[in-house]
Write a structure and sequence with these properties.
OB fold (Dihydrolipoamide Acetyltransferase, E2P), 6-stranded parallel β-sheet, about 20% strand, alpha/beta, Rossmann fold, binds 5'-deoxyadenosine, 5-stranded mixed barrel, binds iron/sulfur cluster, 21 strands
Length: about 475
């Protein structure tokens, strides 16, 4: 039986409201779970399916943490789950299509088990057209909540479970920064640490500033405390997360404490390895570069999305830099931190991109010496400015460009691997290799995947490995003392 829909009752998203930015300072509040909620999940289980970026993985760990505080236990299979949450990604159309497929597939499960609570969370939930479609066509979805109200999950579960009502609550604008949120960390020695939320860049192709709200930084004290606690709990590596970590602290106008200062302070916490993602070239300053140079624990790896090598495309993308100024920042970084490994993101087939524009991108890739890249064909995102730009390049030609670009990028991967041949690198051992359980796998300081023979007891430790073989996607070597 489908439930009655009373749209008036719902908080549904609005992309034009989501675009608005205010000057108000974002308050910090502490999460606290009501005593009466702590037993709701006893003898019940949950599953979370996560799509998209590390930000979503971190959010899923929070959702899991909240559910476990309510008494739920993780389920092994969907069939035995009492709650299934789908944490979604909206960055490209194919990411969304996969999720629609998942939701369709779960309809049968809901039919078998009408008490199952099926929830849609994350970036897709922030989109008007998505929520409209769920309201009309996916009535087996009981719960929709967005990226700004994860901390309200206990209320939503309570309502869905006991009142048997559909709950749809998506805020278009960010609220407070919520601290003290519980987390189920999926890894025992590597952890995500959010340092800021949201993005104010408004690149014209990108949906993120609408789905994640305005830039707001967590306080340095909270971040440092979180990392110190991770050290106490045996963690070896943290990855600092934000859509534009280089803008850390810039929203707190009264303070000149920015990303470089944070890196220096975190370097003193006793954590072995500090990584961060992701960066915007126009916010990358010398202070950050020098902090990387001077810190013992900040890894010599930098993901610096360029998106295109054509100045006219960069302008239409609203990226605030040119090919030349990007290369200047990159060269400064390489000069200040010698040997640093740099990777990037590139979009091909942006509306109006000509063959000449694309050749500029290939030229930039050659000059930049990237050691890897995530490459994408432009995907039209409803509500973003680029969705209405004229786009006459056939899809086939865009795919050809992607193929040609990847050929060049792969040369960079191989070159980046080869520079470690006969070198000894430090590897944080992640686990056994996917293909051979006698072989261990982990990442070097420069973020290269390294395989070598060794005992499983080394998992979670940092060991020295001498590299004997360098392939495009990985290195192989031998354990040394
Ligand atoms: N189409 C294709 N790629 C996109 N990205 C963001 N939005 C789009 C889009 N609409 C890519 C950018 C960004 C990465 C996370 O995803 O390269 O850096
Ligand atoms: Fe999207 Fe640009 Fe913000 Fe990155 S910097 S999240 S590409 S708007």
């Amino acid at each position: 039986m489908s439930k009655k829909i009373d749209i008036e009752k719902y908080f549904t998203p609005d992309l034009s409201k989501a675009r608005k930015r205010t000057n108000k300072t974002i308050e910090e509040v502490k999460f606290d779970l009501k005593e009466t909620y702590k037993k709701i999940g006893l003898n019940k289980t949950y599953l979370i399916h996560t799509y998209g970026c590390q930000g979503n993985e971190a959010d899923s760990e929070t959702m899991g943490g909240i559910l476990e505080l309510m008494g739920f236990m993780p389920a092994i299979t969907e069939e035995e789950s009492d709650v299934i949450l789908i944490n979604t990604c909206a960055i490209r159309e194919n990411a969304e299509n996969r999720i629609w497929g998942e939701l369709g597939r779960l309809k049968a499960l809901k039919r078998q088990n009408p008490d199952l609570i099926l929830g849609l969370a994350g970036c897709m939930a922030q989109e008007e057209n998505v929520v409209d479609r769920v309201l009309k066509k996916y009535q087996h979805v009981d719960l929709v909540f967005g990226t700004h109200n994860i901390h309200k999950l206990p209320d939503y579960i309570q309502t869905a479970m006991f009142s048997k009502e559909r709950v749809i609550e998506v805020f278009s604008n960010e609220g407070e920064i919520v601290e003290n949120l519980p987390k189920t960390r999926h890894h025992k020695f590597k952890a995500w640490v959010n340092i800021m939320f949201g993005c104010d860049e408004f690149c014209t192709y990108c949906i993120v500033p609408y789905t994640r709200g305005k830039e707001r930084s967590r306080s340095k004290e909270e971040i440092i405390e979180e990392v110190k606690e991770l050290v106490i709990n045996g963690y070896k590596e943290v990855t600092l997360l934000g859509q534009n970590v280089n803008a850390y602290g810039k929203d707190k106008k009264e303070d000149s404490y920015t990303f470089g200062d944070l890196l220096r302070d975190l370097d003193e916490t006793g954590i072995e390895r500090i990584r961060f993602t992701t960066s915007h070239p126009h916010d990358l300053d010398r202070k950050t570069m020098e902090a990387i140079r001077d810190s013992k624990h900040v890894m010599p790896f930098f993901h610096l999305p360029v998106q295109s090598g054509s100045n006219q495309v960069l302008k239409k993308m609203n990226r605030h830099y040119t090919k030349e100024s990007y290369l200047k920042v990159l060269n400064d970084l390489k000069e200040i931190v010698p040997g640093i490994s740099v990777t990037t993101d590139i979009i091909v087939g942006f509306p109006g991109e000509t063959e000449e524009d694309f050749m500029e991108t290939l030229d930039l890739v050659e000059k930049a010496d990237f050691e890897g890249a995530f490459t994408f064909v432009f995907s039209k995102r409803e509500g973003t400015p680029a969705a209405s730009f004229t786009d006459s390049t056939p899809e086939d030609e865009k795919k050809q460009r992607l193929y040609r670009l990847n050929e060049k990028i792969n040369e960079g991967y191989l070159k980046g691997s080869k520079r470690f041949l006969n070198e000894t690198v430090k590897v944080l051992v992640d686990g056994v290799s996917k293909n051979d359980d006698q072989v261990l796998a982990g990442y070097s300081e420069h973020q290269k995947l390294v395989n070598f023979r060794g005992d499983k007891s080394l998992i979670g430790q940092i060991v020295n490995v001498k590299i004997t073989i360098a392939k495009t996607w990985f290195l192989m070597g031998e354990l040394v003392d």
